[in-house]
């Protein structure tokens, strides 16, 4: 996607004389040479490694009882070391794609070996603890080899841990296990920066969003929903306001921090709506005047406008999410208040004026920023 856009932009700049054809070709060649760019061969190699790993584990498990115990243990250890040492040797030769595939095979073999050894020696423990050990092993390998594919595998193992927990303990707090998803997400984000694996950061952010939503389900209520939305909006402002000390750090992570924090805030606004609709205010006469609904709608619309003003120009993901939230809120509000045409028209009038004022302020600020940038360039 980005390469196509870059190629189109370079063609436009070449036609306008801003960039010569040789430079444009060199830019595209440099981008294609990056390891972070998409490679069908790399993807197919990783898929092949996963399939081969599963085939090896199935073959071993099918013939498990026919092997002596010492042969089983020695064979598992030897297989893991062969994969890892082979990956190290190939990486030293510059064959990073095959090396990444062998690392995947080694880590998959490690997980399968844990399960088979536990079965062979009747070791106690549960699947959650095994998944934690498997995740730690994948992280160690990812850090040792600075492997992007291994970081992605560690992220998938973290998701597998969450899936097992929800399958077995969705309605209960089981020891310290519920704290593992945010801890795993933090480890993944560190590995993403260390190994330069930007695609894997989405696994960490989405896991955090899911974990927070699960927490809300355990402590469901209007106050929790308001806290959810408030924390999400506060986090968005912390990574989006130019004067924030977190802004430079968040900028190095691209569009993800602003998008996912605003996504949390948007989910929070939705949960507040749901709690009000479920009758959190049903004992109050003022519900008949739609006052809570209008207050939440105003906060949601204001949050969308703030998101567009702070990140809309440079962050397409935040911009489209804010547009969606704004449009959904308007449609929802119209459906709830359609019984009073005058009231609906009045609200739209006030909302329109406020958005127009916000648009005017944003345009003024953007022009001032552009003027200051131009002066700085001339200086």
Structure summarized in a few sentences:
The chain has 379 residues and is an all-alpha fold.
The average pLDDT value, as a whole number, equals: 79
> Poorly predicted ranges (pLDDT <50, ≥5 residues)?
283-287, 373-379
Amount of helix = over 70%
Distance between the termini: 36 Å
Helical/strand content category: mainly alpha
Rg of Cα set: 27 Å
Number of helices: 15
How many DSSP E strands?
0
Order of helices and strands: HHHHHHHHHHHHHHH
Strand content: under 5%
Q: State the major sheet.
A: none
Overall form: flat
Please explain how this structure is put together.
The structure is a single chain. The chain is mainly α. Among the domains are: 34 residues; 155 residues. The chain is 79% helix and 0% strand. It contains 15 helices and no strands. Helix 6 runs antiparallel to helix 7, helix 10 packs antiparallel against helix 12 and helix 12 runs parallel beside helix 14. The longest helix has 38 residues. 26% of the residues are buried.
Q: Which terms would index this structure?
A:
79% helix, disordered C terminus, 15 helices, mainly alpha, 379 residues
């Amino acid at each position: 996607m980005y390469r196509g856009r870059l190629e189109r932009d370079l063609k436009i700049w070449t036609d306008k004389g801003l960039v010569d054809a040789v430079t444009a070709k060199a830019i595209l060649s440099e981008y294609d040479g990056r390891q972070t760019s998409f490679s069908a061969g790399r993807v197919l190699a990783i898929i092949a490694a996963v399939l081969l790993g599963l085939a090896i584990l199935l073959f071993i498990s099918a013939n498990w009882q026919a092997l002596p115990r010492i042969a089983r243990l020695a064979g598992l250890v030897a297989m893991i070391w062969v994969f890892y040492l082979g990956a190290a040797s190939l990486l030293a030769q510059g064959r990073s794609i095959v090396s990444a595939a062998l690392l995947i095979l080694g880590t998959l073999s490690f997980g399968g070996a844990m399960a088979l050894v536990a079965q062979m020696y009747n070791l106690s423990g549960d699947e959650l603890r095994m998944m934690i050990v498997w995740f730690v092993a994948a992280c160690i390998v990812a850090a040792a080899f600075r492997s992007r594919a291994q970081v992605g595998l560690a992220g998938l193992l973290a998701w597998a841990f969450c899936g097992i927990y929800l399958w077995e303990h969705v309605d209960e707090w089981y020891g310290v296990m519920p704290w593992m998803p945010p801890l795993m997400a933090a480890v993944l984000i560190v590995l993403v920066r260390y190994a330069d694996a930007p695609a894997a950061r989405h696994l960490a952010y989405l896991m955090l969003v899911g974990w927070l939503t699960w927490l809300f389900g355990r402590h469901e209520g209007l106050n929790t929903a308001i806290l959810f939305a408030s924390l999400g909006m506060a986090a968005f402002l912390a990574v989006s306001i130019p004067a924030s000390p977190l802004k430079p750090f968040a900028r190095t992570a691209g569009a993800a921090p602003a998008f996912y924090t605003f996504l949390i805030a948007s989910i929070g606004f939705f949960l507040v709506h749901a709690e009000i609709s479920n009758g959190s205010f049903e004992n109050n006469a003022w519900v008949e005047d739609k006052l809570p609904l209008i207050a939440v709608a105003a906060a949601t619309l204001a949050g969308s406008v703030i998101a567009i003003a702070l990140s809309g120009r440079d962050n397409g993901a935040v911009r489209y999410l804010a547009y969606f939230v704004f449009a959904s809120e308007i449609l929802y509000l119209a459906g709830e208040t359609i019984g009073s045409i005058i009231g609906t028209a009045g609200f739209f009038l006030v909302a329109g004026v406020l958005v127009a004022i916000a648009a005017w302020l944003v345009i003024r600020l953007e022009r001032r920023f552009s003027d200051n940038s131009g002066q700085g360039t001339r200086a």
